[in-house]
Design goal:
This protein has 388 residues and is mainly α. The chain contains 19 helices and 2 strands. The chain has a two-stranded parallel sheet. Helix 11 runs antiparallel to helix 12, helix 15 runs parallel beside helix 19 and helix 16 runs antiparallel to helix 17. The radius of gyration is 23 Å and the shape is globular.
């Protein structure tokens, strides 16, 4: 990011010492304006609110995480995709527009000498050796870096352009098949803010490949479904707790909490992929080794954790814990909402089943919708590539 800003005449400071608010306040003391982005998770919202209260200068927040601003799309927690879809569809065309390109009026090189010196002095984060940088941090060192994804805006655009070539053709028909190679793999880049959903929507609409149905299907997933997830997190204070679930699935699962499980595994067994199900184990291997899993397999993976855990609360802790530890796109609105969906959020009651009650289940039939054996082989190839 530093070189990209430098070419535009913008100075870049990367700091690690001190908390985010105190660091930002240090620079705001001599600033005319502070611009920040938008985030819907509670900790980041608290950071921004704290900073805005204490900032000595004007603070402007720019929405870049969604297409339609969440509060404009809806002023309440939405029940399902069908309730938020018309609201987003009615507004999104006004936001899917290219940004005006503007040049910096006063480039960093023209700043007073004392400011330029301070930029150099305050850049305490050495970004030329990321491995060394991460090794010195107080974070989970048990999760290894992956080779499958390379970060950055340039890589995000490159990956999307590749996807919008041949892989995009027939997306609507085959997107639910993990072995078909029809996934865009863009969720990690959206998670880290390395590409905006508006930029992606523009590229999709302008693509020479893909039918109207393919484009509509992709935008449904990226905009409507993703922004439904953000709506849930924004309007739910305890979105990371089991208690965030609606009353009906919690009651349904509680009524069947003592049902005999066909299989039962601990958190550690799940994490190591030591179940009787080779397809589930393959999904866990893909997740653990590459930081990614196809959405269809994510649903099967999570539903089986519900079925094979000793209680629904334990299943919640396992699913959310593994999700947030290993997925590159974990720890965001989509993650918290997708895990809650496993337990009935944004869904309706289904036919009563052991363990699940009236919460939707997923059985072996869901694996017949694609070539599950081909998926296992592809995961084996990916894992060998990661270890090689």
């Amino acid at each position: 990011i530093g070189p990209a800003l430098e070419t535009r005449g913008i100075a870049f400071v990367a700091r690690r010492e001190g908390g985010p608010v105190e660091t930002a306040l240090r620079w705001a003391a001599e600033a005319a304006l502070v611009v920040c982005d938008r985030n819907y998770l509670s900790p980041i919202r608290r950071f921004f609110a704290d900073f805005a209260r204490r900032s000595p200068c004007r603070v402007v927040q720019v929405e870049g995480d969604v297409v339609v601003p969440v509060q404009l799309a809806s002023g309440k927690h939405e029940y399902a995709a069908r309730t938020i879809r018309p609201k987003i569809n009615r507004l999104m065309d006004a936001y899917i527009v290219p940004l005006d390109k503007r040049t910096v009026r006063h480039k960093a090189g023209e700043l007073p000498a004392k400011v330029r010196e301070r930029v150099t002095r305050d850049s305490t984060l050495a970004l030329d050796d990321i491995g060394k940088l991460v090794a010195g941090m107080k974070c989970d060192q048990g999760v290894k870096p992956v080779k499958r994804f390379i970060g950055g805006n340039g890589e995000a655009e490159k990956r999307l352009q590749h996807f919008l070539g041949r892989p995009f053709d027939d997306y609507a028909a085959v997107r639910g098949r993990p072995e078909a190679g029809a996934a865009s793999h863009m969720s990690p880049y959206l998670h880290f803010g390395q590409i905006s959903p508006v930029a992606m929507a523009l590229m999709v609409r302008e693509s020479r490949h893909g039918s109207d149905e393919d484009k509509t299907s992709f935008l449904e997933e990226m905009i409507v479904r993703r922004e439904l997830a953000i709506n849930h997190v924004f309007y739910t204070e305890n979105y990371d707790k089991y208690e965030c679930l609606p009353e009906w699935p919690r009651k349904a699962l509680a009524d069947h909490a003592k049902d005999k499980r066909p299989h039962s595994y601990t958190h550690e067994q799940f994490e190591r992929g030591e179940t009787h199900d080779e397809y589930w184990n393959a999904g866990m291997s893909e997740m653990r080794e590459t930081g990614y899993m196809h959405n269809h397999m994510r649903m099967y993976w999570g539903k089986k954790i519900v079925e094979w855990s000793r209680s629904p609360e334990e299943a919640w802790d396992t699913a959310l814990g593994l999700n947030n530890r290993y997925f590159l796109d974990g720890r965001d609105s989509n993650s918290f909402t997708n895990v809650a969906w496993l337990f009935g959020l944004h869904d309706r009651p289904w036919g009563r089943r052991p363990v699940y009650g009236t919460v939707r289940s997923m059985g072996p039939a869901s694996l017949k919708k694609f070539d599950a054996d081909a998926y296992v082989k592809e995961v084996e190839r990916l894992c060998v590539a990661e270890r090689g």
